[in-house]
Design brief:
The complex is a heterodimer.
Chain A: E1 19-24, H1 30-43, E2 52-57, H2 70-75, E3 79-80, H3 97-104, E4 109-114, H4 117-133, E5 136-142, H5 152-166, E6 172-175, H6 185-202, E7 205-212, H7 213-216, E8 228-231
Parallel strand pairs in A: 1-4, 1-5, 2-3, 2-4, 5-6, 6-7, 7-8
Helix pairs in contact in A: 3-4, 4-5
Chain B: E1 4-7, H1 8-18, E2 23-26, H2 33-46, E3 49-52, H3 56-67, E4 73-77, H4 79-84, H5 86-94, E5 99-105, H6 121-125, E6 136-138, H7 143-160, E7 163-169, H8 170-174, E8 176-179, H9 215-235, E9 239-242, E10 250-253, H10 257-270, E11 276-281, E12 283-285, H11 289-297, E13 303-308, H12 314-322, E14 327-332, H13 341-361
Parallel strand pairs in B: 2-3, 2-4, 4-5, 5-7, 6-7, 10-11, 10-13, 13-14
Antiparallel strand pairs in B: 1-8, 6-12, 9-11
Classes of the chains: A alpha/beta, B alpha/beta.
Chain lengths: 240, 362
């Protein structure tokens, strides 16, 4: 099933740096994108012999965090560093010392999934020294359907707030506009249009668009001219 | 307004603003803190009040004071925080003040945990604080319903001059779903607040209180409140039925997000030819007692199955509704563990196979 998720219609994302920090507003879909990106890299032949790991740096959300997918990811050889025992479930700002090590001595490709908004991104500030020692890309996940990033001005505000609190600079954008099960072609395409405008105004590179495979299936290939990451949702609600 | 994607906690906050709930007092606690976080940004934009108190005790009494001015006021918290607010809630019920309280429930008792639970049912519908009083209690199962019921809560609080509580397990607060808001919240006309303390310029002073030293007056107040609760029972019962029909073998009674898990289980087991119906109370007080009785009494129903994220609380009201006519069985997980559709299916299968065994013996 996983290999089926590879869309053949579009170019797949290119990941260049060892450290990839996935940041964005609350509910932009950072965790789902992070999990899917890690899975895509783990299955990509060009990444063979390059260990993939995912670091859950979300210290602001108590539920629906990427650590919930860690067992599934482990089966694909994707490493993760999570608090053990009861602390796994805690809403405490726990950053294990191993995280710093994983960033500073990254051997393969590391995906960092960060909590939402400037509040969630503040955790990066404490690790900024480690990030500066490595080579990183910090990418903004944009979802036009979210109230505070529904227009260019809102996106620019989010960018400056996150850069301020994280003490790191963005280098790219991921267009992840969706409305959960109500997502349609128009929503995905209008999200790309917004991301392009933000990219134009900020000079940040538009990395790729991510969307659920079932939506991508109905979009004509000519409508998307940037790389595409098909999503298979991992962080599901109990009834899904 | 077009649909947007919102976390339950944010949607509840925005819905309050739509309904004119512009006075918010809070103290942070997981899993509802995003309500406060959102309103800290939004309240200044709409000229409302955002105030973080020094504790839930302080907050509840700020609500008490603010409600006495006749303005729409509300607070949100989670289980242990709601426990701390009980004294002031009882005072507000006694003084007949409208306000809205949201409880995004986590596992208890005590500090418990931070994961979703429904173990504050008793606290919500059976009093919580002291004295002869009731809260009108609503329980949404989707983020959209949380929006709709939040706006309705303000209306009902004013209509009955009584605190209204909306309860949801942690998931209601934390999950993201598409939601739509009305441009303007339209509601039926409400009586003028002739009791509100607004400065006694040119009129007689008004007193808002719950102290009645004369026992006759206190008794009168309690019976007056009682009449109001009877009126709620007549007018405000709300529920939803899912796949309830005359083929059902079992009637599940479940509320909140737990009911959605039951829906998934019902859809799955239907493929195996087992017909199950779901009765979802939306108002927990007033409880849809008569309607549950009617459905449970039907000949085809062999068993009523109550499913909760607790060790069994609402089941007592379901048993009371069914009055011994049918067997009432319970299934639940608690402490932050959410039952999976598979667990629900397993429970249903156990019950169905037991029944067929009994039939064979007969």
């Amino acid at each position: 099933m996983l290999t089926d998720s590879r869309s053949q219609k579009w170019e797949l994302p290119q990941i260049e740096k060892p450290i990839n920090i996935i940041v964005g507003g609350y509910g932009s879909g950072k965790s789902e994108v992070s999990v899917n990106l890690a899975r895509y890299l783990a299955l990509d032949k060009t990444f063979v012999n390059r260990p993939i790991s995912i670091l859950d740096l979300d210290i602001v959300n108590p539920y629906f965090r990427s650590r919930e997918a860690s067992v599934e990811l482990e089966k694909l050889g994707i490493g993760s560093i999570n608090p053990e025992g009861a602390e796994f479930y805690a809403d405490l700002p726990i950053i294990l010392p191993q995280i710093r090590g994983a960033i500073e001595t990254a051997e393969g490709t590391v995906i960092c999934d960060v909590g939402g908004d400037d509040v969630g991104a503040r955790v990066l500030s404490s690790l900024a020294g480690s990030f500066h020692a490595a080579t990183y890309d910090m990418v903004l996940v944009l979802n036009l359907s979210r109230p505070f990033t529904s227009n260019v001005a809102g996106c620019l505000k989010t960018i400056s707030e996150i850069e301020f609190s994280s003490r790191l600079k963005f280098s790219g954008i991921i267009s992840n506009t969706h409305l959960m099960d109500d997502t349609n072609e128009e929503i995905v395409l209008s999200g790309i249009a917004l991301s392009k405008e933000v990219s134009k105004q900020t000079g940040l590179k538009l990395w790729f668009v991510s969307a659920e495979q079932k939506i991508l299936n109905i979009i004509e290939s000519a409508y998307i001219d940037i790389p595409v990451l098909p999503l298979n949702r991992s962080l599901l609600k109990p009834w899904e | 307004m077009a649909k947007i994607l919102m976390k339950g906690n944010e949607a509840i906050a925005e819905a309050a603003i739509k309904a004119g709930g512009n006075n918010y007092f809070c103290y942070p606690i997981t899993p509802q803190t995003e309500v406060a976080e959102y309103l800290a940004k939004r309240m200044p934009e709409v000229g409302g009040v955002f105030l973080q108190g020094e504790s839930e005790l302080a907050v509840a009494n700020m609500i008490f004071g603010a409600a006495a001015t006749g303005k729409r006021v509300f607070t949100t918290s989670s289980s242990p925080g709601i426990s701390l607010m009980q004294e002031a809630i009882s005072y507000m019920a006694g003084a007949e003040l409208p306000c809205v309280i949201v409880n995004i429930m986590r596992g208890g008792p005590g500090l418990g945990g931070i994961l979703p639970a429904q173990s504050d049912y008793f606290q919500s519908v059976k009093g919580g604080g002291h004295g002869d009083y009731r809260l009108l209690v609503l329980a949404p199962s989707t983020v959209q319903e949380a929006v709709d019921l939040m706006m309705l809560s303000f209306h009902l609080a004013d209509k009955y001059s009584n605190p209204v509580m909306m309860i949801g397990d942690g998931m209601i607060g934390q999950m993201m779903e598409p939601v739509e808001f009305p441009d303007v919240y339209e509601e039926p006309e409400l009586p003028e607040k002739t009791w509100a303390i607004t400065g006694a310029k040119g009129r007689k002073p008004r007193v808002v209180r719950s102290l009645f030293l004369d026992p006759n007056k206190l008794e009168n107040n309690s019976w007056h409140l009682y009449d109001k609760y009877e009126l709620m029972k007549k007018n405000e019962v709300r529920f939803e039925k899912y796949k309830v029909n005359d083929k059902n073998e079992i009637l599940i009674v479940s509320y909140g997000t737990m009911a959605r898990i039951c829906q998934t289980a019902i859809d799955e087991i239907e493929k195996e030819g087992v017909s199950i119906g779901l009765f979802r109370p939306i108002s927990l007080f007033p409880f849809p007692q008569d309607d549950i009785f009617t459905e449970a009494s039907k000949k085809n129903i062999k068993n009523v199955l109550v499913i909760e994220m607790s060790t069994g609380q609402m089941i007592e009201d379901v048993e009371r509704a069914v009055v011994g006519k049918k067997k009432v069985t319970f299934f639940g997980r608690t402490g932050g563990i959410v039952p999976s559709p598979e667990e629900v299916i397993k429970k249903i299968k156990e019950m169905v196979s037991k029944k067929s065994k009994t039939k064979k013996k007969a």
